[in-house]
Design a protein that fits this description.
Layout: E1 2-7, H1 12-23, E2 30-36, E3 45-48, H2 54-58
Parallel strand pairs: 1-2, 2-3
């Protein structure tokens, strides 16, 4: 099992990617963590913050992220 981080998860491309990854979890064993400045629509683990903020990125330390 791995962890996939999607940045910009509330944006146009990011929201579609999160939706697609969340629906494929039944076939592939991984977790999705969404990093976004606003709450993503999908029901995945989400971290509110900016990729440009070191303090926000520190929150991601609790996850063992395999792919971005």
């Amino acid at each position: 099992m791995g962890v996939v981080l999607v940045t910009g998860a509330a944006g146009y491309i990011g929201s579609r990617l999160v939706r697609r990854l969340a629906s494929s979890q039944e076939v592939i064993s991984f977790d999705v963590v969404a990093l976004s400045r606003s709450k993503p629509v999908e029901t995945v683990v989400s971290v509110l913050g900016s990729y440009a903020s070191p303090a926000d990125l520190e929150v991601l330390d609790e996850y063992e992220i395999d792919s971005v």
